[in-house]
TrEMBL record:
It is found in: Cell membrane. The keyword Cell membrane applies. Keywords: Cell membrane, Membrane, Transmembrane, Transmembrane helix. This is Xylose transport system permease protein XylH. The chain crosses the membrane at residues 38-54, 66-87, 107-128, 135-153, 184-200, 234-257, 269-296, 317-333. GO terms for cellular component: plasma membrane. It comes from Meiothermus luteus. It is a multi-pass membrane protein. InterPro entries: ABC_transp_permease, LivM-like. PANTHER family: ABC TRANSPORTER PERMEASE PROTEIN (PTHR30482:SF5), HIGH-AFFINITY BRANCHED-CHAIN AMINO ACID TRANSPORT SYSTEM PERMEASE (PTHR30482).
């Protein structure tokens, strides 16, 4: 009976489990099994069909999730990949938003890309202190940058519009399609998000990604092993800021108008929560964390509205408390984030109902 059980388990594992990766080429593959490639293709098709299936407001929320996932992914690469803490991601999102606001219509994709490049260049400057300080001191340095950016957003009226912010032309179109339509913005965002997610997945499996992990675990040992700390830390900051800038450009076209209140410290903490809740250092964690951070407040609003409109106003005061309590409860129960929870569920069903 034991031999039969072992034979069945081995056959099951060979058929359905991940293949053993014997070289770096296999390790860099996006999906290592036929089942993985099938589900990956199905997910991509589902994303392309999503605007045709959802009504207007759910499409708006889905685009918000896309923006949060991109900004969160940039912070995942920095915090989970290179181990450098940052409390200024919302500032980079704001930089991308304000830069892209000057290029609308058919130039919208160019504005989004330019916003990411400008944010990435500023990210290199912000990364310079990481060459000398780390930990809580680096967090304070990025926090200072967040406050400085908030001051610039409010005072540089010629570029940002000051406290009133900036608005896009209501009649702006892209290839003849109105940019006021959330479905158009979603497709534009998807055109950026898909290659950026695939690039991040490949990057973490390459030599540069492994150098980031070495810096994260012990930067002194990494340097003694031949890792260029200057290049690793600065590229991590630049890439994180670039992802945030692109997310900000998409957000600008989604909202049609932005003000400095869209990029305050609370949003930087929200992006950091995406990293913690999703699972630091993983691509899937950015997606799952964005779903959690964006959808939970929406679900709380729906639940409060079901009891009556008078409870919706009360929820606005208690939603942050309830939201924070959910995050704390989740972290206590699953410190590795949603990715760790998904991994346990996947590993259980991968060999079920066999004994091991």
């Amino acid at each position: 009976m034991y031999r039969l059980s072992q034979t069945l388990t081995d056959a099951f594992s060979r058929r359905f489990s991940r293949t053993v990766r014997e070289d770096y080429r296999q390790d860099e593959a996006y999906a290592s099994t036929p089942q993985g490639r099938f589900w990956l293709g199905l997910a991509l098709v589902g994303l392309l069909l999503l605007p045709l299936l959802l009504p207007q407001y759910p499409m708006f929320v889905a685009t918000q999730i896309l923006v949060a996932a991109l900004a969160g992914l940039g912070l995942h690469l920095l915090v989970g990949g290179a181990g450098q803490i940052s409390l200024g991601q919302a500032a980079f999102v704001g930089i991308g938003a304000y830069v892209s606001s000057h290029l609308s219509g058919d130039l919208a994709p160019l504005g989004i890309l330019l916003g990411g490049l400008v944010a990435g260049a500023i990210g290199v400057v912000l990364g310079i202190p990481s060459l000398r300080i780390k930990g809580v001191y680096l967090a304070i340095a990025t926090l200072a940058f967040q406050f400085l950016a908030d001051y610039v957003f409010k005072r540089w009226t010629e570029f940002t519009g000051g406290v009133a912010g900036r608005k896009l032309p209501a009649e702006a179109t892209f290839l003849g399609l109105p940019l006021a339509d959330d479905r158009v913005v979603f497709y534009i965002g998807l055109a950026f998000a898909i290659p950026m997610f695939f690039y991040a997945k490949r990057l973490l499996s390459t030599r540069a990604g492994r150098a980031w992990f070495a810096v994260r675990d012990n930067d002194l040992s990494a340097q003694l092993s031949g890792v260029d700390l200057v290049r690793s830390k600065l590229t991590a900051f630049a890439l994180s800021a670039f992802y945030g800038g692109v997310a900000g450009g998409i957000l600008m076209h989604l909202l049609g108008a932005v003000t400095p209140d869209n990029f305050v410290l609370a949003f930087s903490i929200q992006y950091l929560a995406i990293v913690i809740v999703g699972g630091a250092g993983t691509i899937l964690g950015a997606v799952l964390g964005a779903f959690f951070i964006v959808l939970i407040p929406e679900l709380l609003s729906v639940v409060a509205g079901a009891f009556g409109p008078q409870y919706v106003a009360q929820l606005s005061a208690w939603r942050s408390v309830a939201f924070g309590a959910l995050i704390l409860l989740f972290l206590i129960l699953e410190p590795r984030g949603l990715v760790g929870l998904w991994g346990r569920i996947r590993d259980y069903f991968r060999t079920w109902p066999l004994p091991y």
